[in-house]
Specification:
Length: 174
């Protein structure tokens, strides 16, 4: 993936995210107002008709709130990182992705200190999770590996394996 995206594409993505955020939040608020009005009606005029109306309103409200949650970019990013449903509390995850030469990465390799033109990036994330859904990201760290070190590590070289736990803040950029 290249960092050379046109400014118009970046702007369009930003505007799209803002629109989806407003839309998602609006649907959630509308759903909550809808169910509140239905229950208020049930409490004021208790009858079989009001009970059926409340049941219908509850179903419609559930659909509106659910759609609002799925449309909102903030919740979509959280739902993309789901853990096991039994996970509650602090969870640590590690993601990897390939760095391609066209990305023009300016970081240094965690293992050898050379500039990373192509290689591997690891993202370590510590999050607070409730029933598998990440609520808050406590910390996020990136470690970069040049192509030689990433290849050596993936093939099982012990020297690079020791560098996996090195804190990247120890390296000073020249």
């Amino acid at each position: 993936m290249s960092n050379d995206r046109p400014n118009s594409a970046v702007l369009a993505d930003l505007i799209g995210d803002v629109i989806y955020a407003f839309l998602g939040t609006g649907l959630m608020v509308l759903g909550l107002l809808f169910i509140w009005a239905a229950f208020d009606n049930l409490l004021r005029y208790p009858s079989v008709g009001a009970s059926l109306l409340t049941l219908f309103a509850a179903v419609v409200s559930f659909v509106l709130v659910g759609t609002g949650i799925l449309v909102n970019p903030w919740t979509k990013r959280r739902l993309d990182r789901l853990h096991a449903p039994s996970t509650v509390g602090r969870a640590r995850t590690v993601d990897e992705r390939v760095v391609r030469p066209e990305e023009r990465c300016t970081e240094r390799c965690t293992a050898c200190g050379d500039r990373v033109e192509a290689g591997l990036v690891r993202r370590r994330r510590e999050e607070y999770v409730l029933f598998g859904v990440p609520l808050v990201t406590r910390s996020e760290r990136f470690t970069h590996y040049c192509l030689d070190c990433a290849t050596a590590e993936l093939s099982g070289d012990d020297a690079v394996e020791a560098a996996r736990d090195v804190d990247p803040s120890e390296f000073v950029l020249e």
